Amino acid sequence: MRVLYGAVASACVIVLLAAPSQGAVAADDPQVNLLAADMDTTMDSGTSPLTMSTASGGGSQQIVSVGGNNALELRDASQGTNLASYFYHRFSTGSLVSRVNAVYGAPVGSPAEQFVLKFDLKRAAASSKPVAKDIYAEIQFGNADNVLVPRFAVPAVSLTGTAAYKSTSGALATVDDSDIPEYRFTVVPNGGQRLVTTVELGFQVRVDTGGTDEAIDVDNVGVYDAGAVSDSAPPTTPTSLHAGTASSDSVPLLWNASTDDTGVSGYDIYRDGYLASSVSGSSTSAVVTGLMPSTGYDFAVRAKDAFGHVSALSAPVHVTTATYVPAAPAPFPGTQQTRTQWLWDRTKAMKEEDGPINVAQYTAQLVDHQNVAANLGKLDKLYQGYDYEQYKIMAKMYTYLMAGDQFSPAMLQDVRAYFAKYGYQKLPQTENLRMSTYVTGYLVGQYFPDVADLNGSSGAALKASSKANIEEMVKAGVRRGWAEYESPEYTIMTYVGLNAIYQWSDDQQLRSEVKMAMDVMWFEWANDWDNGYLISSESRAKGDLASANDPTWRSADHTTLAWTYFGEHRAQQGVGESDNTAPSAYRPDLEYVGMLAWSGTSYTPPALAVKIGQMTDKSYSAYKSNLQNSSGNAMDVYRTSYVRPTWGLATETQYRRVDNWIEDMPMVLRWQSNAANPLFRISLDQGTAQIGSYDQPDNHRVMQDGPTALGIYKSSGDQTSNYINAMFPDNGSIVEREQVDGWTVVSTGPMYFAFKLAKPGTWYHQTPNDPSNKVKTTTQIHPTATLGYTYDILRSQADTNAWVLETADASAYAGLDAFATALTTQTGLDTSHVNDATPRVVYHSLTGDDLDLTYDKASQAPGATHLVNGQAIGYDSFKLFDTPWLQQDKLGSTFTATVGDESVAYDFDQWTVTPGTQSAKR
After folding, report:
1. What pLDDT is recorded for position 736?
2. Is residue 354 classed as helix, strand or coil in its secondary structure?
3. Could you give the C-alpha distances from 359 to 55, 395, 417, in angstroms and in order?
4. What pLDDT shows up at residue 242?
5. Which helix (H) or strand (E) holds 644?
6. How far apart are CA 573 and CA 469, in angstroms?
7. Alpha-carbon distance 181 to 178, whole Å?
């Protein structure tokens, strides 16, 4: 590299540049510390120059003496949360800001300027569980665009590999660019098009759950001007890119080095066209992590120099990651007891990651007298906080009732103060939030009779009003069906509330009522359970991960609880966010199902429900209805399912709709597979939501006749939401896929299915590693909006559209080609009226039936718009339950379950349960 004037040593810090200043510090003396005039870099004042980002991370800082000189100790403790402890100094003016902006303000083509970061370091406390990647220093530039101004002038490279960190001498040692090459960074003039607005110097320290403290001492922090350099040519292209042995979540890559007349400063590694990783110019290898199992990726590498010049991309290499192998799969086949114990153990072993922390792990460990002091400390901090979601309040009531006998008097005062922060009155909210509020209020009245809520209600009065609200919800649930039926996220919240009443209420009549309601929930879960797969349309199913419930991974929801009793066709590999392989947002606050695995749980589901759930040879059609929405208002949802021993299709259509949510899954096809995510579904774009997440029943009308489903669509006029998305999983659960005469024809192994759109569609591919807005460009760019699995997405935009889905047992055809031939010779799709003001589609199916679907309004009553062989589907005649085992009329007070000669009848007028036999009735 041609240096135009003196080079200097490096420095290691985290800095965000602030508002530009007019003066510029000359680089005449390369040893001038550009931070020295603006902060105490030597710690001699006895006061830390850094600010701790948040007190909740368990961090602390103090001035200490090392070898007779002051240094700054930065410490992270496992206490409180498992967030990293971050310490920073933010500059908006000063020497460093001025110097950097003077370079950025120089004419384009002027020599670039190099800077070096440097400090003295000692590891002051060695944790038993340090998180190495989160022990670092960095420099961030404010107002960055990553084109003219990089956000991270010095990226967050771990300090744990440096000699200073690993030294056991007890003395401070220098860390600079000789230890971490990234500590030398280059500022390239852009003619003042973009200047930095802030510079932030920061250090981060982090320990994992249950680890001892980690601490580093730092001193003599500096940023130095290292001289100007110039260059005009890009590096050569990296060659011979190849992959090592891929794991289930990472791929090692190697390549031959590029050359450059001033030196290669780094390599950028691209995954499917997106920047995935960067390494220094001295490296010719990288490991791309955070990938999905059984997923194919294309990788390429590009070299860069300090002047912003980049090479062409290397030739790509395609790599498929390995199959996920769980560290601790569930016992298989196991028993209800061993599966429940596994769930309890998984709850105790949950990871703590960035974001809200979970009381379930701390509570479970406390119950088993593990890490008592640490868990009590963490819980006490949580009780001193405030929760905005009612189910979190209810979870903390569980904690108190399960483990409160270990709380100190001081902690009990915090508990009392916590429950006094809320009002437990009747609310116009969703089903799960209402139940959580009323149950918590009831138990506060029972167990803390002198604690008044925000409305001044307490004791017997609070208990009585809460009981009335609970009973109102229970009566609606058993006669109208629960509104958030089969919701992957919210069904369990309502259930957890009912279970709390049964477990801890002193009112025997109320306990009897909620037990009957829970029993009926279990009967529905059992009916829909098909050897590990829930065959049902779903209410309030938002997000890709909320859709996935199968033996590879299922969220910590009611299907996990059902699995402990019903079992499935192969071993459960993972449950909950701790076992989630997708690089998505962590939501441990939703994992309260683990508390239901507690050995002290009193409730057990009906033996007859368990018998239905454990059936492995189900072959039936079923019809159900739900007569309320999540807010408790009347509406009609009509649900149809077609189930076979190894797969099932389910749909729903809504009527008399007023204000319901748009998080439903109106068409669900699931099948048995040894691969992840055996699920095909259809969705509509909605706002900034993740692709594949939502539906809009007002625009999308669906009908089903046995193994065939038909849909019609009419846009509301919003040109950003008139897309239909057919989500084909690409993680191995689809064995073969081909295009035949407009059909997408698929083999899953046990069954075949075929999908066809009325209007043209375009294929896209998206993985969880891709930006959330890769395909649906209006998607919010946020971790919670990323996909949980990889998909090939057939996407069609039109103001009116239609689709058809055919399904069949693989055994019914000689092969996939025979199935495709049947589709092209025996079926017919009439789309001649799809463009009408009131769109209509007619389909002649493989079963020989004619399905005739005309667009109608979800707000209306059913009419003659959904026809099979000329006859309207009698939605208004649907029962609440009409399946081979379950029967209940709409708004009926009697629910019956029957298996062979065994039966049981629930009377919701008298609140009695009567077992019986069919032979006795005869």
Report:
1. 98
2. coil
3. 19, 7, 18
4. 97
5. strand 634-644
6. 39
7. 6
- As a whole number of angstroms, the distance between CA 34 and CA 115 comes to 10
- What separation, in Å, do the N-terminal and C-terminal C-alpha atoms of the chain show? 97
Report which residue type is found at 241. Answer: L
* pLDDT at res. 607: 98
Q: What's the chain's length in residues?
A: 922
Single pTM value for the model: 0.81
Contacts of 836 (CB under 8 A, 6+ apart): 800
* pLDDT < 50 regions, the chain: 1-30, 354-356, 920-922
Q: Which two tokens mark 128? A: 């038993």
Neighbours of 325 (CB within 10 A): 10
Residue 178: both structure tokens together: 């000789």
Tell me the C-alpha distance between 598 and 894, whole Å: 32
Which phi-psi region, left, alpha or beta, contains residue 920 (left: φ > 0; alpha: ψ -120 to 50)?
A: alpha
Residue 225, beta-bridge partner list: 115
Distance CA 309, CA 303 (A): 8
Tokens of 474: 């229970």
Q: Which residues touch 322 (CB under 8 Å, ≥6 apart)? A: 246, 247, 248, 293, 294
Nearest CA to 912 out of 541, 513, 520, 611 is that of 513
Q: Say how many C-beta atoms besides its own lie within 10 A of residue 321's C-beta.
A: 21
d(CA 765, CA 274): 13
pLDDT of residue 864: 96
**Residue 116's beta-bridge partner residues?**
184, 224
CA-closest candidate to residue 503, choices 511, 513, 493:
511
CB 814: neighbour CB atoms within 10 A? Answer: 10
If DSSP states are collapsed to H, E and C, what string results for 567-628? CCCCCCCEECHHHCCCCCCCCHHHCHHHHHHCCCCCCCCCHHHHHHHCCCCCCEEEEEEEEE
Give the pair of three-digit tokens for residue 873. 């589907």
CA angle 392, 393, 398 (to 5 degrees): 90
Q: Per the structure block, which two tokens stand in for 497?
A: 């509330």
3-class SS string, 390-444: HHHHHHHHHHHHHHHHHCCHHHHHHHHHHHCCCCCCCCCCCHHHHHHHHHHHHHH
The first and second tokens of residue 130, run together, are 């340090």
